[in-house]
């Protein structure tokens, strides 16, 4: 696709039936957005500003707009200095190709001699599962990936050893060919050389001219302490080899942490729920929780603790990824009501109930008081 196919209406963001006022308003908005004074040193913004100005120069003039609506950019190619249909006056559009090339890349440029650069190889993704313990300590892992790698016999060139490349006869080494379609001249990459301007004298018999073959590659991966779900590790240059000797892409390792039977993770914090008997909750106690670090962490349960209360142990959670320190260990207490009592235990509980005054459980007492107040005793 060439620069002549870029639509002026799309550039300003207006419909083809927009009136002059709408076009002027749209241009002012775009000009304010991309004006060089507002984007100092931004070459792309400056080019966009020039392109919008060129589009407005055409669409604001009824004669020029009519010619553009009828002939498109071909009107300017055939007489930009005033000889074209509708009379273009003194408007100069000779630099439109450069403007569009700056904004949209060389594929939209107006020049016919630029070869396409070999594209780098594709990036690859590898999903790795680790345990929470491995995420805590980190690990050195070894992975095997089937990847398009550089062909050894031809060194990635795609040419049979002892042979080379020659200029493409179809495009004359330019990498592009042109075809007339009505009023438009369409420029496309050369179908013979795929835009490279060169063809192989004899394709490599091992890779059939691709310069790469599928191989199993083994890579060492350093999993740092503190990784979490979605952590991405980049192995530069370990993706697919580029065609015809082009640079390789990258390999991205996406880490997935398996669920743990005891701990749940939120950032650098570790959560766990600990059931305690109602006597422990009433009298208080110290419990011990084994941590992922191999240490045993003492958690003091205060007397009278309620179910759902969270206790925090500073610095006993997950390591900070690529940083210092650790998060916290958070213990949520769940008071468990006994379901299997001996006759003696039931007897003791009945004796205890007979001694209750209501002050032992202030929340229950308060709720009863609210009921009395709401329903008149």
TrEMBL record:
Where found in the cell?
Cytoplasm
Zinc fingers, CR-type class: 138-216
Q: Which CDD domains does the UniProt record give?
A: DnaJ, DnaJ_C, DnaJ_zf
Q: Write the record's keywords in alphabetical order, separated by commas.
A: Chaperone, Cytoplasm, DNA replication, Metal-binding, Oxidoreductase, Repeat, Stress response, Zinc, Zinc-finger
Q: Where is the CR-type domain?
A: 138-216
Sorted alphabetically, which Pfam families does this protein's record hold? DnaJ, DnaJ_C, DnaJ_CXXCXGXG
* Cofactor: record remark: Binds 2 Zn(2+) ions per monomer.
Positions binding Zn(2+) 2 in this chain are 168, 171, 190, 193
Does this UniProt record's set of keywords contain Isomerase? no
Residue ranges of domain J in the record: 7-72
What InterPro entries does this protein map onto? DnaJ (IPR012724), DnaJ_C (IPR002939), DnaJ_domain (IPR001623), HSP40/DnaJ_pept-bd (IPR008971), HSP_DnaJ_Cys-rich_dom (IPR001305), HSP_DnaJ_Cys-rich_dom_sf (IPR036410), J_dom_sf (IPR036869)
Q: What is its main location?
A: cytoplasm
Required co-factor(s) are:
Zn(2+)
SMART domains named among the record's database cross-references: DnaJ
Any one GO MF term held by the record is: oxidoreductase activity
Gene3D superfamilies, per the entry: DnaJ domain, Heat shock protein DnaJ, cysteine-rich domain, Urease metallochaperone UreE, N-terminal domain
Q: Which family does it belong to?
A: Belongs to the DnaJ family.
Per the entry, what this protein does is: Participates actively in the response to hyperosmotic and heat shock by preventing the aggregation of stress-denatured proteins and by disaggregating proteins, also in an autonomous, DnaK-independent fashion. Unfolded proteins bind initially to DnaJ; upon interaction with the DnaJ-bound protein, DnaK hydrolyzes its bound ATP, resulting in the formation of a stable complex. GrpE releases ADP from DnaK; ATP binding to DnaK triggers the release of the substrate protein, thus completing the reaction cycle.
What does its UniProt record remark on the domains? The J domain is necessary and sufficient to stimulate DnaK ATPase activity. Zinc center 1 plays an important role in the autonomous, DnaK-independent chaperone activity of DnaJ. Zinc center 2 is essential for interaction with DnaK and for DnaJ activity.
- Identify the NCBIfam families for this entry: DnaJ_bact, PRK10767.1
* Protein's recorded name: Chaperone protein DnaJ
Please give the organism.
Aurantiacibacter gilvus
């Amino acid at each position: 696709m060439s620069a002549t196919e870029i639509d002026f209406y799309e550039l300003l963001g207006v419909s083809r039936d927009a009136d002059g006022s709408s076009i002027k308003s749209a241009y002012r908005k775009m000009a304010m957005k991309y004006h060089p004074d507002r984007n100092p040193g931004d070459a792309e913004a400056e080019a966009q500003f020039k392109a919008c100005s060129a589009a407005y120069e055409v669409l604001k003039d009824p004669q020029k707009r009519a010619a553009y609506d009828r002939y498109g950019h071909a009107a300017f190619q055939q007489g930009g200095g005033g000889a074209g249909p509708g009379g273009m006056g003194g408007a100069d559009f000779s630099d439109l190709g450069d403007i569009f090339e700056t904004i949209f890349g060389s594929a939209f440029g107006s020049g016919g001699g630029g070869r396409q650069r070999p594209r780098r190889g594709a990036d690859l993704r590898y999903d790795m599962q680790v345990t929470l313990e491995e995420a805590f300590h980190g690990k050195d892992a070894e992975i095997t990936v089937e990847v398009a790698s550089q062909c050894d016999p031809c060194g990635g060139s795609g040419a049979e050893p002892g042979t080379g490349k020659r200029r493409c006869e179809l495009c004359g080494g330019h990498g592009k060919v042109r075809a007339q379609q009505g009023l438009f001249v369409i420029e496309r990459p050369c179908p013979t050389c795929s835009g490279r301007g060169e063809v192989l004298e004899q394709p490599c018999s091992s890779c059939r001219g691709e310069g790469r073959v599928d191989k199993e590659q083994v890579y060492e991966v350093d999993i740092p302490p503190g990784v979490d779900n979605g952590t991405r590790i980049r192995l530069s240059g370990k993706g697919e080899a580029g065609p015809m000797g082009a640079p390789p892409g990258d390999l991205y390792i996406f880490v997935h942490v398996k669920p743990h039977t005891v701990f749940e993770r939120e950032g650098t914090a570790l959560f766990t729920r600990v059931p305690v008997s109602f006597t422990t909750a009433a009298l208080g106690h110290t419990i011990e929780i084994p941590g992922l670090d191999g240490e045993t962490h003492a958690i003091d349960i205060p007397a009278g603790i309620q179910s759902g209360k969270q206790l925090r142990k500073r610095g006993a959670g997950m390591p900070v990824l690529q940083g210092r320190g650790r998060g916290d260990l958070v213990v949520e207490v769940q008071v468990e009501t006994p379901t299997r009592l001996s006759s003696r235990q039931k007897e003791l509980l009945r004796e205890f109930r007979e001694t209750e005054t209501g002050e032992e459980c202030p929340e229950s007492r308060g709720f009863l008081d609210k009921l009395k107040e709401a329903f008149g005793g």
